[in-house]
Known about the structure:
The chain is an all-alpha fold and 478 residues long. The chain has helices spanning 18-22, 31-37, 77-80, 88-98, 112-122, 132-138, 143-154, 157-160, 165-177, 188-202, 205-208, 213-225, 235-240, 244-248, 254-270, 278-293, 300-313, 321-336, 344-367, 383-405, 409-462, 473-477; strands at residues 50-53, 60-64. The chain has a two-stranded antiparallel sheet with strand order 1-2. Helix 7 runs antiparallel to helix 12 (213-225), helix 9 packs antiparallel against helix 15 (254-270) and helix 15 packs antiparallel against helix 16 (278-293). The longest helix has 54 residues, at 409-462.
Amino acid sequence: xxxxxxxxxxxxxxxxxxxxxxxxxxxxxxxxxxxxxxxxxxxxxxxxxxxxxxxxxxxxxxxxxxxxxxxxxxxxxxxxxxxxxxxxxxxxxxxxxxxxxxxxxxxxxxxxxxxxxxxxxxxxxxxxxxxxxxxxxxxxxxxxxxxxxxxxxxxxxxxxxxxxxxxxxxxxxxxxxxxxxxxxxxxxxxxxxxxxxxxxxxxxxxxxxxxxxxxxxxxxxxxxxxxxxxxxxxxxxxxxxxxxxxxxxxxxxxxxxxxxxxxxxxxxxxxxxxxxxxxxxxxxxxxxxxxxxxxxxxxxxxxxxxxxxxxxxxxxxxxxxxxxxxxxxxxxxxxxxxxxxxxxxxxxxxxxxxxxxxxxxxxxxxxxxxxxxxxxxxxxxxxxxxxxxxxxxxxxxxxxxxxxxxxxxxxxxxxxxxxxxxxxxxxxxxxxxxxxxxxxxxxxxxxxxxxxxxxxxxxxxxxxxxxxxxxxxxxxxx
Length: 478
């Protein structure tokens, strides 16, 4: 399957405008745009971008791709007047409007029936079999906005933290826009699914009676933004192609750092918490980062070992703020990889989507003569193989410990679904193996028949028959 990344390459050889370097707004970077359009990913280290540093900690918060998306002609006057710095997704939308390109019309327009069904679904948002794909269709692709806003309002957080409704809505819209809809898996629907799972975990008795409103706010925001501006490729890919972000974050939690900084950028651009004291805002940003960084799968064993040790020593005290924060980290980790624990109809869809994203990365690696990552080779992997391995070595150990911490009906339901899903993938694998084995003998039989026919023809020629390669005697004499 051909991977179609048709976004034009954005040249970064223009001088950086002063308003870019001085601005403290949201400037997120779509790594996929430059990476997949470049003739050779190894050249990325030679490219330059505008990096804005936060004066307080000298951490690079924002990376900006400079240049208009159109090819060839210089920017028009209206384009030069646009000084609002957008993420790549919103910048692409803005440039289309400036060039007069008509906006794509959705396949269906929401009517009262759709919104009514969406409201009915929200009444059961705490159910583990919540169908996020159906909810996304009912909300016309706005599942992340609708779900997150509903949960914040349901908890009374909008009124409690005196959040400006316009700023909040703008923040959620920008968050959803900054997820790449062309990613098969890491898109806004995945973020909405993780947010719904996070809500389910925070409703568990041990957490519901211990978490503060501040904890709940952080948990929901972290879930909604945990994969913000994900490029659709993994960290090893960014590292081996000398990508900007890998260099910026020193090859450590590259994507997670970028998700965190992108979220912070949007919070600052919208001014959602500007009415709070500066010290509280900075503290919230740091704790938001701590939650998002915990989703780094390469640090799975570190968190799991710490979690297991707490459970063995029975020393978790949820009246302790640091312990509550750690449990939020573990809850977000569970929510992020909970797809194998969903009912089969939902789990199978997620498995196929994440595997297709892996395979698309492998296609890009093969196209650019890079070493194809082990899980990204569509020629040597199947969805079933990848999912069974993922469940066995990553998901099962984590959710077994979560069930020790919170031994509830939900935990047992998740473990039950995971066992059934693993068995289902095993059954599908067995069926595929059986079909392959049946196909091989028939192929071998056909080859044997062809060989026998060839040998029979040669024998008849030797007994007086005429071979096609031999010239008849009469012809020679003439």
